[in-house]
Records
---
Amino acid sequence: GAVVSQHPSRVICKSGTSVKIECRSLDFQATTMFWYRQFPKQSLMLMATSNEGSKATYEQGVEKDKFLINHASLTLSTLTVTSAHPEDSSFYICSARDRGGSRGYTFGSGTRLTVV
Amino acid sequence: DQQVKQNSPSLSVQEGRISILNCDYTNSMFDYFLWYKKYPAEGPTFLISISSIKDKNEDGRFTVFLNKSAKHLSLHIVPSQPGDSAVYFCAASGGSGGSNYKLTFGKGTLLTVNP
């Protein structure tokens, strides 16, 4: 079945530094990648949608300069949290969809980010 | 404005019995609904889905029912097993243009199946 590999699974960083999270589709072409964040006991909140080769579309209230998304290839998308602050600590999850949607939405395993 | 609502934050059932998880939605443009199972610190795992042209979809122990007039769907798990204990998320997609493929999630229901 479709697999999305997300790395790292956990990261601790200091305030002010940047952190990059990668999601790779291993056996299909991810034409669309969705990035979510989840706070404890809350829903998955969509942050942005990116299509390969295009600029990401951010949801209302999400700072595009803070959460940089790159989707340069059909198998790789990255989310970079720039100048991280403790309030950015959260669980970040990517989800990939192929062009026809035949594989549905495949989620990565998530990244637990802790900013100290 | 929460468009997908799971009003029960938790549910506890006995092993072997039926688990019924409920989900309501407000956006009439939603036309595709999915259920995901999630363990802590892991990504969601797809369980079952249903298109708005159907009112029932069954896959093994999992059945999803859709009542479009009531904007309500439910996931039935029977028989429930201890390994089913997890958080279950309801998600919906649909609409026009580029927003078609976005998933909107409910807050999840923690299911505990007791041996």
---
Amino acid sequence: AQSVTQPDIHITVSEGASLELRCNYSYGATPYLFWYVQSPGQGLQLLLKYFSGDTLVQGIKGFEAEFKRSQSSFNLRKPSVHWSDAAEYFCAVGAGNTPLVFGKGTRLSVIA
Amino acid sequence: EPEVTQTPSHQVTQMGQEVILRCVPISNHLYFYWYRQILGQKVEFLVSFYNNEISEKSEIFDDQFSVERPDGSNFTLKIRSTKLEDSAMYFCASRGRGGTGELFFGEGSRLTVL
């Protein structure tokens, strides 16, 4: 069965510092991979997605993620974090018509 | 930009009462979903709906839950007799034709069962 693991429950970074949020997945076929962001009291907004091709994908708000098949990972990165990036980040996996499976999320706090 | 809209944004109900959460998916989308998120926990799949029938459902989606697309625009989730543990944020999502799997989510309906 497919699953997503986000090993970090909570991460705190300083504004301007770089960020990497980890995501590992288990999936029986070539997966489609997603990162969503949820600001407090808000819905889920898609940051970026990977379907095929270039393993480094660019998303909105300056985020990028790299698909590494050998490590079953799809880590999210940002070179310089802004205070407005403080939110909950969810990695998700799916393919075709199968429902997305989400990880438990990583809460990002940004300090001055 | 088209978006998924959900109503109500917050509903408080007594245990045992029926609740209907409403969603208007993006107009040309064909696949519809409900997910829920209990406070502080992960987003969990409830049910998917396509071609006027349930295509997949999770263990959470028991006989107390039902979904309906009563007209060409609304997609509803009904909980017949709410329990305390139904308190959660419920997200509706929709997807267009094609196999890329990207879901567009609404902002959620927070259900509080007292």
